[in-house]
Amino acid sequence: MIAPRDDANVTGAAELDRPLAEVAVRVHEPGDAPASVARDVRKLAEWIRRHDGVESVMHHEAAGTIVVRYDERRAPGMLLQGALLDRLRAIRPPRAIQTHRLEVSLAHEVPGRVRLRVGAKAS
Length: 123
Hints:
With 123 residues, the chain is an alpha+beta fold. It is built from 2 helices and 6 strands.
């Protein structure tokens, strides 16, 4: 889910002083970007771009990730990853929890205690 790594391809003398790194956070299934997901990803990218130390943000649709390039001295990767995942959870509606009916029956009984059998109820 996370792919932090040092950036060895930094170019330019001014950029050599900045330790740049990347973190990739999965925001949707690979290759699956319907309109609702694209809107969420766009909001997420705009939000994380405003964080201190973030150099660039890219949506890699084929991999289903947002890749954030950041200055390690100003923004720790784990903090950015956690912030992205928290924000993603906040902007998406909660998934409906699927309920399952259970059946409880008496499996064994001795004086003072019982053993119960729990299983899925047949529909």
